[in-house]
Amino acid sequence: MTGSRIAVAALATLTLLAGSAPSPAAPAARAGAQSPQVFQFALQNGMQVLVIPDHRAPVVTQMLWFKVGSVDDPPGVSGLAHFFEHMMFRGTKLVPADQYAQIIAKNGGEDNAFTTHDYTAFYEQIAVDRLKLAMDMEADRMANLDLSDNSVSTERDVVLEERRMRVDNNPQAQLGEQMAAALHMSHPYGRPVIGWADEIRRIDRVSAQDFYDHHYAPNNAILVLAGDVTPDQIRTMAQAEYGKVPARELQARAEFSEPPRMAETRMTVQRPDAPVPIFSRTYRVPSYAQAAPGQAESLEALSQVMGGDQTAALYRILVEQKKLASDAGCSYDGYARDAAEFSVFAVPRPGVSLETLEKAADEVIKGFTAAPPAAGDLNRAKTQLVASVTYRRDSQYAMATAYGTALMIGLTVDDVNTWPSRIRAVNGAAVQKAAQALDRRDAVTAYLVPGAAK
């Protein structure tokens, strides 16, 4: 599975060396009844560990996050990080071929993985009395992965077939790739996480071995566990299972900057297999890792009040009132190490041109730049956003993902726990300012048109 997008220093004030008792996050991080208690410590080989006790059921979710994503793919070999999402399931001498998933399933568990531009995560959800088994197998494939010519070539073909099915045969996915490539002019965010087909074909045993050796190491990972465990229990288990894997020399992560965009990019993609026409626009905006205080939260609130669901302005005006669209909305993809994306889309009703729909969507956006949203609309949007965090506490996987994602882009436990209060603090003026900052010069606007390309 691929996805859209840590700084060790961010953990320094909350981290203890292995051998000492784990410590809960600072009291400020636990402020409010909605914040779970979180413990952090480090193993002697550099692996960071985060524990979220949840004793409602005798199960645990283990997530192993690596600070490697598609931005770390070598020039000319895009898709390597995603390729390793697959390769980690190819096996070792102790657990050969596809037995990893089979063993997890036979023990009543589930496993999967995902890759983004900024990180890769592997996870298992399993009974707590089988956690040692899951840890042992994760540690084994971190150190002893089968990177034979046969395994590499087989999995490379699997990835190419995945690309054909999910991207090449999907007009909307291809449109998204073209837009990202145009939006991020010099940043690797412009490369697809899955990789370009011709570059995937270049992956061989030598390039795979080098990438594995310099990225998939304990000192480049964060272990997140949520479930029926205690921090002392996990400290002992993690040191026994993961602590035996030696640290390795890492490939330094490159720092990227992008030139200012001088003008909006526009494109039209015609595909005979496109089921419906689509208007889409993506703005390059600050992420949670980049933004000034309150800026990312204001973009989040703007996204929700303008296009987060069927009660939001884009749907209400374009679909229900003006009857120009069959669907419309927007999103803010803010959890990235570098620039984030703010996207708007609409699907026209039969007989409505994309030009007409774009103009109507721009009028909705203009309304938010001209005046703050109505207090009732904004309060509803903020309530929806905060409620999503409350519901997340019912899922170990969702809790572990929230903390892991934040740490991977350089945020902290405190940033996760105080997010609801920061959302509640967003006011109408801040949302208006966020809308005014949506600059068409920093955007790509695209039409997907059914029909043969001319």
Structural key phrases:
454 residues; alpha+beta; Cytochrome Bc1 Complex, Chain A, domain 1; seven-stranded mixed beta sheet; five-stranded mixed beta sheet; 16 helices; 12 strands; globular; disordered N terminus
**Helix percentage range:** 25-40%
CATH topology value of the largest domain: Cytochrome Bc1 Complex, Chain A, domain 1
Which structural category do the helix and sheet elements fall into? alpha+beta
CATH H-level superfamily of the largest domain: Metalloenzyme, LuxS/M16 peptidase-like
Computed Rg: 23 Å
Query: Overall mean pLDDT score?
Result: 92
The strand count comes to 12
The secondary-structure element order is EEEEHHEEHHHHHEHEEHHEEHHHHHHE
Strand order of the largest sheet: 1-2-3-7-4-6-5
Backbone shape? globular
Strand portion: 15-25%
Q: What is the count of DSSP helices, taking H or I runs of 4+ residues?
A: 16
At the first level of CATH, what is the class of the largest domain?
A: Alpha Beta
Main sheet summary: 7 strands, mixed
Total number of domains: 2
Give the termini separation: 34 Å
Give the low-confidence spans: 3-33
Q: Which architecture name of the largest domain does CATH use? A: 2-Layer Sandwich
Care to give the gist of this entry?
This protein is an alpha+beta fold and 454 residues long.
